[in-house]
Amino acid sequence: MQRLSNPRQDGRDIDNSYDVVIVGGAVIGAAVAYYLTANPDFTGKVLIVERDPTFTHASTSLSASGIRTQFSNAINVKISQYGSEVIRNFADLMQVGDDRPDLNFHPGGYLFLARTAEQEQTLRENHEVQRDCGADVELLSPDDLIRAFPHLRADDLVLASYGRSCEGWFNNSGLMNGFRNKARAQGAHYITDEVVAIQRNGSRVTGVTLKSGQQIATGHVVNASGARASLTAGMAGLHIPVEPRKRSVFVFSCAQSPEGSATINQGRLPLMIDPTGVYCRPEGTCFLAGCPPADDPAVDWDDFEPRYAEFEEIIWPALAERSPAFEAIRPINFWAGHYAYNTLDHNLIVGAHPDLPNFIFANGFSGHGLQQGPATGRAVSELIIYGGYRTLDFTEVGVQRIVENRPFVEKAVI
Q1: DSSP SS3 for 27
Q2: Any idea what DSSP says for residue 154?
Q3: Where are the alpha helices (DSSP H) in 96-214?
């Protein structure tokens, strides 16, 4: 096989043909590469093309780094259950030599609060789905809530939903780097470049063109390009309803921290989702918070300026109303990241396009990509290797619903 002359990030010359080219090397692309190269039934070659090896603006790097089983659709519950299993066993699974990556998982759980009858009904309906999947989630009355988390005010609440296990937060870059390093050790090639064109012959993708001018022939292309997913799809003549939506994150100190005051879970506070949509969780000795913006337009792919006013106008008032402990707080850090937002139904889009079966989507995670990365990587690898799913069936979140404009709505989006 002929090789291209330029060595790249791995220090190896790049071949002119790969069985799989993955566009995007953050957590989704890294997970796909890992599961492909870990499977003894796959004997092909994998190339991951990443435009920014620092991952400075990747959704993976800028996320709030949580995992939860509290979703409204069974497939999303099961995806997170598998993700939790991978996180628990990550050091063993991703060991390379003496390096055993520790994700520093904090099992704080998630706590959803309901104030209206509609919110209560949603929590109860979601709980039925979660319980049927075996998720360790319980519903709390306002009295139960106060007993468990005494710092909270609950006089306006009607119900709460709390994940007792398999929920929390962890090292986001650690997950991505663990998958990436293991995939590389298993033979995957990583290069710093950018896919600028995709070639197709009728109903098959045949290759990609890189910004450097090099052309790579391939048997499959995986779109793992995050908030830029629509750009990658467009190169293949396809459409996907994914656009970048900005989310600002704030870290604040607290004069009278309530961490350690819970009467359950060894005093640990959960990631709390207020009825206003404001969320808050411990972050070391501080707290991390964010909210859905009042106005939520698509933004430019390079717009990462935080919406500073959200802290004083939305987040602080909601938190101070919920707990006296949050009346005296001070922001100390902030950043903005992008949701790869699926405008159709806020749900992931995974699978082959019916008109282009060797072009695989792994997109539209709408803020859940980090926690859904392990199951997605495994599912995509099964599609490529076996032509169908062997573990979790991702058909419900496949591309066909996009083509038919048939929403499969996920209601529990933070």
Answers
A1: helix
A2: -
A3: 117-132, 142-148, 172-185
pTM (predicted TM-score) = 0.95
Residue type at 89? N
DSSP 246-307: EEEEEEEEETT--TT--SSGGG---EEE-TTS-EEEEETTEEEEE---SS--B--TT-----
How wide is the angle at C-alpha 366 spanned by C-alphas 241 and 283, nearest 5°? 160
142 & 252 share domain: yes
How far is 12 from 181, CA to CA, in rounded Å? 15
Domain that holds residue 318: 108-165+244-340
Query: What's the longest Cα–Cα distance across the chain?
Result: 71
Tokens 């929920």 appear where? 167
How many angstroms separate the CA atoms of 145 and 143, rounded? 5
Kindly report, residue by residue over 150-209, the tens digit of the pLDDT: 999 999 999 999 999 999 999 999 999 999 999 999 999 999 999 999 999 999 999 999
Is 82 inside a domain boundary?
no
- Within 10 angstroms of residue 158's Cβ, the number of other Cβ atoms is 16
Residues 6+ apart with CB under 8 A from 48: 21, 22, 24, 25, 29, 30, 33, 183, 188, 189, 190, 191
Q: Tokens 């704080």 belong to which residue?
A: 108
- Could you tell me the end-to-end alpha-carbon distance of the chain, in angstroms, rounded to an integer? 48
Q: What is the pLDDT of residues 317-374, one digit of tens each?
A: 999 999 999 999 999 999 999 999 999 999 999 999 999 999 999 999 999 999 999 9
Task: Give the pair of three-digit tokens for residue 49.
Answer: 């093309």
Spatial distance between the Cα atoms of 114 and 120, rounded to a whole number of angstroms:
5
CA distance 19 to 221: 9
Same domain, 10 and 150: no
Sign of the torsion formed by the C-alpha atoms of 259, 263, 267 and 271:
negative
State which of 340, 360, 381 marks the end of a domain: 340
What would the two tokens of residue 91 be? 């050091």
Q: Are residues 360 and 336 in the same domain?
A: no
